[in-house]
Each structure stands twice: as structure tokens, then as C-alpha cells.
Specification:
globular, single chain, 468 residues, alpha/beta, seven-stranded mixed sheet
Amino acid sequence: MKQFLRQLPAVHELQKDKRFLDLIEKHGTDTEHFTPIIKEVLNDIRKDIVNGKWNGPEPGNSLFIDKFLGLLDSAATERFDFTLKRVINATGTILHTNLGRARLSENAIRHVMDTARNYSNLEYKLNEGERGSRHSHVETLVKEVTGAEAAMVVNNNAAAVYLIMSALARTKEVIVSRGQLVEIGGSFRISSIMEESGAHLVEVGTTNKTHLYDYENAINDNTGMIMKVHTSNFKIYGFSKTVETEELAQLSSKHDHVVFYEDLGSGVLYDFSRHGIGDEPVVGDVLKMGADIVSFSGDKLLGGPQAGIIAGKKSLIDQLKKHQLARVVRVDKMTLAALEGTLMDYLKGEQGFLNIPTLRDLLVPLDELKDRSDRFIREINALNNGIIAVMAEGTSQVGGGTMPDVQLPTLLVTIRHPDISAEHIARKLRTEHSPAIVVRIQKEEVHIDLRTVTAEEESILLNAIKTI
């Protein structure tokens, strides 16, 4: 052991090797930033020698240097590799929270790239030659697609709730049905966000039933708001009752000091119920019903980037824009560009919004999925590598805490191997390929749902299956 430790080369000796300089060039760095990696690899080898775990060549010969440079290359690759990586989502869950939720449309992506690469008029009025507002870039589009008087954007819907509560109901009472005090992902609770804002929560009704008179009886001089929360991440069935938007709007209109705010969560701009998919309220319809102000997410059913979109009466939106928290929760130019690109797709009508991956994947015809799955199965079985692929009926999920009761009929490509477990196949697809591929496992079979796989990704997936 002592002899091996003495034979370990010094850092400055390794730096003289031409292959070391080649590695520096390969990884696009310099000696200063590469030297710590050399030290780390040497220290790891030294520990292995001391602990009797080193099974490589003896230090001091050319084979050791070859081995060391290979380890150095791997360590540098890991050091300079991104941890946020592209993933192929073959699960069929369209808004997969763990996989980044909504994919952006090509229009939105191009707009983000152009905005990121160049200077922009983020807060500058080109015609007037003076300072402008970043809110203006998407406000007009939100107004057009929802019918709102005014709008603004913050970094997510939880921030939107917090800003609205802080600006419009701080120290005042906010009436909410007990059945709508939801908890969203990451243990964030609507009630907790409200309390943090300084508003006083007033719960009415019961978990399963809330009546209009519950709200009426709770209104007093200190009431600042009636809030309705769309429980998009769960449903109550059976013996239940909620008060409709129109009724709450009419009630609040009788009291000048009471604002009616509806948190819509998912952010639906297109009526999916036309295709028999769910019963999500459309933002524009809720505003027409009389809501003073609404908020919703950008990266769920809207199909854009993470954002919290607030729309409603101009007098209320103006208060929010002037509030000190507006700067705390504001979004950057890339988010605005992505949202502007997405909303522009909506503005173009059906031809435009079908370019949005979330909507396209939700509405893809079953016949199209069958044709794609048939072809993909034939390609897999033609590999003759032991993998057996067959088609099976199944369901896709919307995901992202939206439409929890909706199961979209789909056709699954199920694969199995007589000698390799489904878990092993899934792990290989996930860890031994770039981009990583995430699949479902059920009944000892790997399930691939092409609903969330693009045509380009099919060929990548097929090449990955070849190696199993």
C-alpha cells in the first residue's frame, strides 16, 4: 500500500501530459478550474488504495495514467454536466409535475430564444422613447382571450393568491367554503397562504355542503372578500352542494365593500367539455358570470410557462400593480416571452391552439394513437432482441393537479422480455440513455403511452429499446 501511495503522480506531472490539455479543451475550461478535479480523482484513488479497494493498474506505469485520465474525463463530465436534463415522457401523463408540466409550443420557444439572445423592450416604449411597464406585453393578449378589463402576471398562482389577499383584503375577512380549503402540491395550503397575507379567514358551510345563506350570514362590515376556490386537484361526489359563481357574484354586488375573487387554478382558455373532457370552467365564462377578479396557472391546462395570471376589473388590477409585493413576485423576460408566445397561439383560433402541446395531446384522436402504436409495435418486434411488444387498452391522465376524475382512453405499447424484469428495463431506459426515458410499470410489464411522445422521440425510444 505504501509503495502504491508513493508512486501516485503529482498534480504538476499530470498537467504536462498532452492528453490532459486535450481534456481541458474537450470540456471547454482552463487549467485553474480543471486542477481541483485532478485533486479529487487522486484523493479518491488514494482512499481506495488505503482501504484496499483499488483494483486498477499499479501507479507509476502507463496503464495507470490511461486509467486515471479515463476517471478524470468521467469526473469532469459529471462536474460540468447540467443536472436539469431533457426527459422523454412516455407515461401518458400530459401535465406530469415531476417532469416539468406543460411543454411549450414552437411559437413560444422561438419567442423565448429571441428574447433571451437579444436586448428587448421589456420596460421601454419604442414609439414614445420612454420607460414602459413589463405588464403591458401580455396584458393585451390576456384581455383579448378572456374578455377581462385588465390583467397582470406573477411567478405562479400561489403568488397570485398571496398578492390578491395582501393588496385587497389585508386585515379584512375573507369568506371561503370549508369544502374549498384545498392543499396543493408540496403541502401548500390555501388557508395558510391566506393567513400569511394578513387576511382573516372565515370558513362557512361544511366539507360537503355550503349554501348561499352561509355566505350571506357571514358578511359584516369587516368583510373584504368572498373567495371561491376551484378544487381542481380533487372532487367531492354524492351528498354535496356548492354555491355557483353567478350566485356569489350577485351576492357580492349587493355589498360595495366586498370583492368576489375566484381562484381558477388550472387556467382553462379552451372549453374541453366540447370534446367530453372534464368540466373545467373557462376563464372568460367566469368573468362574464360576474367575478371581479380571477387567477390561474400558466403551466397547467393553459399549456404555457409557470406563471400566475390575474385578470379582472381594471380598478382592482391597478391596485395590485402598485402594491409593493408586485415587484417581489414579478416574472422575468423569458417567462413573459413564453407566455406571450402561448397566448398568441390562442389568439389565432383552432389552428393556433392545436400547436400547443398540452391541448394537442389532450385532444389527439384515438385512431391516430392506434396507428402510431401499431407501427411502433411492428418496429419493436422487428428488432428480434427478445423484447415482445403488444397493444393494450388503457387510460392517460391529465396530471398537474387538474381534472382528477378524467381518464382519457388510450392505447398502450406494452413490452416485456422473458429474462429481464420490467423494473430492470425501466431503469435502463431511465438511467442509461440520453435523453432519459420515463415509462410506466404495471403487472410486470413496461407500458409506453405515445400520447406524450413526439414523432421525433419515437425514433429515440426505439434506439433505446434496441440496446436492452
